[in-house]
Amino acid sequence: MKRHAIAGRIRRSRDFMKHYAGALLLACIALTGMAGAAAATEVVPLAPFESSYAIIWHGFTAGISRFALRQDPSGQWIYVSRNEPHGLFRLVPKASLTLTSRMSVDAEGVRPLEFTAADPDDGKLQAQVRFDWSALRATGVFEGKAIDMALHPGVQDDLSIQVAMMHALANGQMPAGISLFDKNGIRDYEYTRVGAETLQTPVGPLQTVIYRSHKANSPRSNRYWCAPELGYVPVQAEQQNNGKVELVIKLQSIHRN
Questions:
Q1: Is the pLDDT of residue 221 over 70?
Q2: Which of these, 221, 168, 152, 160, lies nearest to 190 by C-alpha position?
Q3: DSSP, residue by residue, the chain
Q4: 13 φ, ψ (degrees, to nearest 5)
Q5: End-to-end C-alpha distance for the chain, whole angstroms
Q6: Minimal CA–CA distance to 46: which of 112, 99, 106, 113?
Q7: Phi, psi at 17, each rounded to 5°
Q8: Facing residues of 142 across strands?
Q9: For residue range 177-217, what is the model confidence (pLDDT) as tens digits?
Q10: Phi and psi, residue 129, nearest 5°
Q11: Residues 41 and 243 sit within 8 Å (Cβ to Cβ)
């Protein structure tokens, strides 16, 4: 396979990694539709954690992705993704960006407040977008493009989507749709539960529920295995193109505070 073809496939895989938080958890959601309601009125709180995942591209390990969720003294939540690409993935400069999302989480759900992408070597920002929910505008810069975009309730960024999904599922809610912020506009995805499976992982066997996300008229789809006993942290994810698996991300370690 020619080098430019390989690089193109890597870029597409990088996009999946980014939307699943740089490498695994690219779970979902803006929660545009909900089926069901929480069994209790009390909101199940988030729990801070740190996790790592192996990135497997067409059968070989292409890198490691690390995630950390924490709460700052103001009560806001910060979610960080760091990628360590190996082999061919080093050909893609943006594959190693550090992504950070600052968000609010309450009974109304998850709302991103600021999203940044920074070069891990020099700290230079590649993206900085702020979400103004009173004005319903997203403004800033994303990969060299100025952003000034209208928002609607439920829109998430590339990292807050994961937290939104975990928060919703932990509170007995079923996401039915995804609204994801992108520099070119808001993209909507269908989101459905497709089964359950017990996975053997480095941290032991874990029962999971499986969800699928898909954009209309796209040959690609994503599946996510989320573990209830870990607060619905994703354990595994995969990207398919025309029914063929291109990229798999698998949990390697997790520490919950």
A1: yes
A2: 221
A3: --HHHHHHHHHHHHHHHHHTTTTS--------SEES--SSSSPPPP--EEEEEEEEETTEEEEEEEEEEEE-TTS-EEEEEEEEE-GGGGGSGGGGPEEEEEEEEETTEEEEEEEEEE-TTT--EEEEEEEETTTTEEEEEETTEEEEEE--TT-B-TTHHHHHHHHHHHTT-EE-EEEEEETTEEEEEEEEEEEEEEEEETTEEEEEEEEEEE-TT-SEEEEEEEEGGGTTEEEEEEEEETTEEEEEEEEEEEEE-
A4: -65, -35
A5: 45
A6: 106
A7: -60, -45
A8: 127, 145
A9: 678 888 888 888 787 889 999 999 999 999 999 988 887 77
A10: -125, 130
A11: no
Pull the structure tokens for residue 240: 């398919």
| Lowest-confidence region among 21-30, 115-124, 161-170, 232-241 | 21-30
Write out the two tokens for 146.
């100025």
Whole-structure pTM value: 0.81
Q: What is the pLDDT of residue 94?
A: 64
Q: How many residues does the chain have?
A: 257
Q: pLDDT tens digits for 143-154?
A: 888 999 999 988
**Distance of alpha carbon 170 from alpha carbon 194, whole angstroms:** 18
* Banded model confidence at residue 20, pLDDT cuts 50, 70, 90: very low
Looking up tokens 């900085």 gives: 128
